[in-house]
Every structure is written in structure tokens, then in C-alpha cells.
């Protein structure tokens, strides 16, 4: 295959590669960059392409490997290792360090909400939480299994309402 034919084949297949690049990067500009990098690598390594094999599959492989390499490079670039005497590892990226206070407040609110439940709902709910099966709770409390399921359902519903402030917005 001549250089001109190879170049023409690359150009013809570039349209088919664009959706794959978009799927990988989820950004139009990054997808265009990835497509361009793929085409440059393919053209510079045209001597490694075996004529008669699937050019499109070869290009997809180059694109996937280029994406993975760029991603790994980006992750490595975000971390800086301090080699001074005190050997601190610093992360230069924007990171969030949690001190656990939010979790402590949430757990305190959860325990309070459970304590505020009526015993008729709290007891079966806590037994189920501790691992008891519905039939075991029914036997222990001497109530029908349907009542156990209903009370646990109501307890969950009440807790969900009480703790709605912690609902994640997606």
C-alpha cells in the first residue's frame, strides 16, 4: 500500500473513529485531540501495519492505547513526591481531605432517629438490622410474618423521611 493510499484509507476511517473517541473522552475537544493523535501515530507507524489485515481494528487499538496512556500520564502528573529529608508525599491536585466530622454527625442523627421510633417499629427494625430473618423476628415477637415486614417497611419509611437532609442530589 502506497503512502497516498494509506493516507486516503486513514482519512476515510476517521469518521468511524470519532464516536469511539467521544465515548472514551466524553468531551468533544478531547475526542478531536485523541482522534488526531491516533491518526498521527498510525501514519508515523504505517510500516508496522500489515497489508491485508483490518485497518479499522488496528486504528481502534491505537486509539484505545493512546487514551489509556494519556490517562495514566494525567494521573501521574497530578501526584508529586517530595524527596526531601522528611519524605512527605504531597498531592498537587485538588483533593478533599475529610476529617470524619460529617460522618459522625450523620451517625448521631441516624441513632437519634432510630431511638425516636415507636418500639412497635424500632424492635423489629433493629432485629432485622442485626441479622435476624423475618420468620425469626415473627417467632420471637409472636406476631405474623406479614406484620413484621410491614413494621420494618414503616420504620424504613419513617427513617427516610427523618433523614431526608442526607439524601444525595444526583
Automatic annotation (TrEMBL):
InterPro entries, per database record: RNA_pol_sigma-70-like, RNA_pol_sigma-70_dom, RNA_pol_sigma70_r2, RNA_pol_sigma70_r4_t2, RNA_pol_sigma_r2, RNA_pol_sigma_r3/r4-like, WH-like_DNA-bd_sf
Pfam families noted in UniProt: Sigma70_r2, Sigma70_r4_2
Protein name: ECF subfamily RNA polymerase sigma-24 subunit
Domain RNA polymerase sigma factor 70 region 4 type: residue ranges: 108-159
NCBIfam families assigned: sigma70-ECF (TIGR02937)
Domain RNA polymerase sigma-70 region: 16-73
Molecular function as annotated in GO: DNA binding; sigma factor activity
Family: Belongs to the sigma-70 factor family. ECF subfamily.
UniProt keyword list: Sigma factor, Transcription, Transcription regulation
GO biological process, one term: DNA-templated transcription initiation
Stored PANTHER family: RNA POLYMERASE ECF-TYPE SIGMA FACTO (PTHR43133), RNA POLYMERASE SIGMA FACTOR RFAY-RELATED (PTHR43133:SF25)
